[in-house]
Amino acid sequence: MSDFSLKSYEYNVWANQQIFNRLKELPKEVYHQDIQSVFPSISHVLSHVYLSDLGWMEVFSGQSMTDALALAEQLKEQTEAKEMEEMEAQFLTLSERYTLFLQQKEQLNKPLQIINPSGGIMKTTVSELVPHVVNHGTYHRGNITAMLHQIGYASAPTDYGLYLYMKKA
Questions:
Q1: Quick one: signal sequence residues (predicted)?
Q2: Any domain includes 94
Q3: With contact defined as beta carbons under 8 Å apart, do 133 and 96 qualify?
Q4: Which of 35, 95, 141, 161 is the most exposed place for a label (fewest CB within 10 A)?
Q5: CA-CA distance, 130 to 136, in Å (whole number)?
Q6: Residue 30 belongs to some domain of the structure
Q7: CA gap 12, 52 in Å, rounded
Q8: What one-character-per-residue DSSP string does 35-84 give?
Q9: Are 127 and 109 in contact (CB under 8 A)?
């Protein structure tokens, strides 16, 4: 399972980078442009994904879900306001932290007890939650793709099959 966790996370990093690379090809204002969609702008989507990923990393590292959510709320406004280059750098820094963490095989199956602030306790492991982190990113990259199409631009391909092809080519 540990190899799967790391490999799927590596795909997530690649797919996020595909999106950043595409955004860098577009006019700079596209990043913060108001769009009538699920999120008000692409910067809001990427802020949400980053803060969610950061929150899970905090939980994986031993913080409570309540503390992770509080951190996300504290950083939300300033993260949404960042320019794309700053956001890309933050994603890369966080991905390095994830990679180092996921390479520590003893961390992957360590029991986690997550207390949901709304009530209830979930007992799980990091290796069981990494697919959630990746799936969450995939879902929101789809939002970005739709948003770009709404304003007349093509997105970037981020399919897992393409990732595997590119990795083996």
A1: none
A2: yes
A3: no
A4: 161
A5: 10
A6: no
A7: 14
A8: -SSSSSSHHHHHHHHHHHHHHHHHHHTT--HHHHHHHHHHHHHHHHHS-H
A9: yes
